[in-house]
Specification:
Elements: H1 14-18, E1 26-30, H2 34-41, E2 46-49, H3 53-56, H4 68-81, E3 86-90, H5 100-114, E4 118-120, H6 128-136, E5 141-146, H7 152-155, H8 165-180, E6 185-189, H9 193-202, E7 207-210, E8 218-221, H10 223-226, H11 243-259
Parallel strand pairs: 1-2, 1-8, 2-3, 3-4, 4-5, 5-6, 6-7, 7-8
Helix pairs in contact: 2-4, 4-5, 5-6, 8-9
Amino acid sequence: MSSQRPSPVRRIAAPDISARKGDVPIVCLTAYSAPMAELLDEHCDLLLVGDSLGMVVHGLPNTIGVTLEMMILHGQAVMRGSSRAMVVVDMPFGSYEGAPESAYDNAARVMKETGAGAVKVEAGAAVVDTIAYLVERGIPVMGHVGLRPQAVMTDGGFRAKGRCQSERESILSTARATADAGAFAIVVEGVAEQLARDITEAVAVPTIGIGASVGCDGQILVTDDMLGMFDWTPRFVRRYADLRGEIDRAVAAFSDDVRQRRFPGTAEIYFAKAGQA
């Protein structure tokens, strides 16, 4: 028997996401910190601790420099801040592409140290067997096909995929193999709209679109892009807020108040108690 009191809220798990195939669209966003996870938790079915944190949080030029330790640290924070949404942690570049045994050791470490519900890998021909190896050993895996940020060096940059027939067939084949290997869901990023629909029809597990098609079984965006934290965002992002502008205005007002000695005022300072000066 456990001495810990069970949580009154049951967290969404991989089987719950898998069961949403063809049902109400799955709502997903990225999260990298406890406060943001707390805000998103009520509205999202799945929170992805994406390796995009390398660019969004740490200012890296791409995701290649992200380490396993970085993913674990942010994964722990997101788990602390959320209670309902499923949390999936990206496996960073270099942590799963080698021997399946090594990938298992790294994925098991992520699961143990964060408590997350699954890991995500960018799928390719060399990774499909690893997905099966992980799933067979009790690690839920989300796949990722199409535009793969960790392949930016070989692809020569970030560009839409599946616009030519040969590329289309390769991505569709990889998606099928990823589902057959046991992935509980597949992120489909930056592909031609019809290809995203074809993948969704071809696989028995939910597809989560980003720069793909409304026909996918769910959608995900980088939260900071959606909230307008950057001057530039990809074409597939819809901005639902302008937090960059709001922060700029707030900081400018604070700066002006400090320089004009309007802050702090009487409401923001402490006074000695009467008779104890």
